[in-house]
Amino acid sequence: MFDLDLQSRTPIYEQLYKKTIELIIKGVLKENEQLPSVRSLAKEIGVNPNTVAKAYQELERNKIIYSVSGRGSFIAKICDSSVKDYILEDFDHSVYEAVKIGITKDELKNPENIRLYNVLNGLMRLRNVDIYVTGSNSKMLTKDVLTAFRGRGDEVKVYPISFKEYYSFVGGDKSDAYEEYALYGGMPLVLTKKSDAEKMNYLHTLFTEVYFKDIEERYDIELPDVLSELTDDLCSSVGSLTNASKISNTLQTVKNIKVSGTTVSNYLNYLIESFLFSNAKRYDVKGKKYFEYPSKYYCTDIGLRNARLNFRQQEETHIMENIIYNELLCREYSVDVGVVEIVEMSAGKRSKKQCEIDFVVNKGSKKYYIQSALNVSEPSKLETELRPLKNTKDFFKKIVISKTSMKPWTDEDGILHLGLYEFLLNENSLEL
């Protein structure tokens, strides 16, 4: 239990002192539990009894343990605030060192031995202590840390700032603010950059030096070129249906890069786990079932997407759809892509056609069908957007969000028409 390094330059009594505190924090030594006698512990670890006695004296002086005449030494009640504060103060150094070192590449291959996790679990043993862990990798935080906490922890996802938050900071004309947001996204530090060049450089650096390096080290990527091409493909085609096999075939045909669908699928998961992308599955509205593939992939931050493409591809329709998707996630909705099968008659023959609803949105008992449409001024375009909504054959709320500046209104089919800015700036806009 008292595993000490007899070859260390740290004095043995000091090691024993700190080890006792560590065992208390981890819950190995409990309140009022008796410690081994000085002589028995000295014999066990192979040191002079005076060394053990000195450690015990320091522990008792700082109220970590207490002694009972004729019986021995016992662990003090760590619920005592002074004791708790002292333990925290002493443990501070370990926390600092663990955070400073972070998680090494070798530790990532063997998560059970990650020092930082041991520190977190140690702190978890203390009463009336809240622990907050931040990071940019969902697999690391949700799978490893939360599992170690065994239900005593919770996950809070922090997204890039929304357009509403962005606008509250910059103010001015809504249209101008939106165009800026659609270009540079919602990474908070962007707001501190004065020039376009500074913003672009920051986003480039963030993507390359933080996100990509994190992914490569975390998952020990063997084919970085494939990861790079995959990322470019997803950024170029946000909101488009795709899957691992399709991407694999495209890489082989267009780039002459041979890679299995399994590898592509793994890399897709890595990009999602690192919060660079999220995906929306296809849902059969009438059949009430999910399609296994393909899915749609959206960038978590549109500014990072644009930076990855060197700000060359500004497809306004897809960017708007991506922003709406991210806003729905921020409002804690689950979001799928809707598929509606429509039966058509042509030349006396029946045919079936699958139409798409951009978003099927759920939260609790609430459900919405939402279409994202840049411009619905043309009757034919409007009819295209309305058609799948009209054919759901159910009574859940249906909404069309367009960039047209207008007040919310409801048509004769009960479909709500929302302007983009109204939707983004009013958290209750879906209830209008």
- Please provide the ordered H/E string of secondary-structure elements: HHHEEHHHHHHHHEHHEEEEHHEEEHEEEH
- Number of alpha- plus pi-helical segments: 17
The radius of gyration computed from the alpha-carbon positions, rounded to a whole number of angstroms, is 29 Å
Average predicted local confidence, pLDDT:
87
CATH domain topology of the domain at 12-149:
Arc Repressor Mutant, subunit A
- The shape is elongated
**Unreliable sequence segments:** none
Could you tell me the strand content as a percent range? 15-25%
Query: End-to-end distance, in Å?
Result: 64 Å
Number of strands: 13
* Structure class: alpha+beta
CATH superfamily of the domain at 12-149: Winged helix-like DNA-binding domain superfamily/Winged helix DNA-binding domain
Helix content class: 40-55%
- Give, in spatial order, the strands making up the sheet with the most strands: 6-5-8-9-10-11-13-12
CATH class of the domain at 12-149: Mainly Alpha
Protein described:
The structure is a single chain. With 432 residues, the protein is an alpha+beta fold. The protein has a domain at 12-149: Winged helix-like DNA-binding domain superfamily/Winged helix DNA-binding domain (Arc Repressor Mutant, subunit A, Orthogonal Bundle). The protein is 47% helix and 17% strand. The chain contains 17 helices and 13 strands. The protein has helices at residues 12-25, 38-45, 49-61, 81-101, 105-108, 115-124, 138-149, 163-170, 174-184, 196-219, 224-236, 244-254, 261-273, 302-308, 316-330, 379-390, 420-425, and strands spanning 65-68, 72-75, 241-242, 277-280, 282-284, 289-290, 295-299, 334-346, 349-363, 366-373, 397-402, 409-410, 416-419. Strands 6-5-8-9-10-11-13-12 form an eight-stranded mixed beta sheet, with helices on both faces. Strands 3-7-4 form a three-stranded antiparallel beta sheet. A two-stranded antiparallel sheet has the order 1-2. Strand 12 and strand 13 (416-419) form a beta hairpin. The N and C termini lie far apart (64 Å). The mean pLDDT is 87.
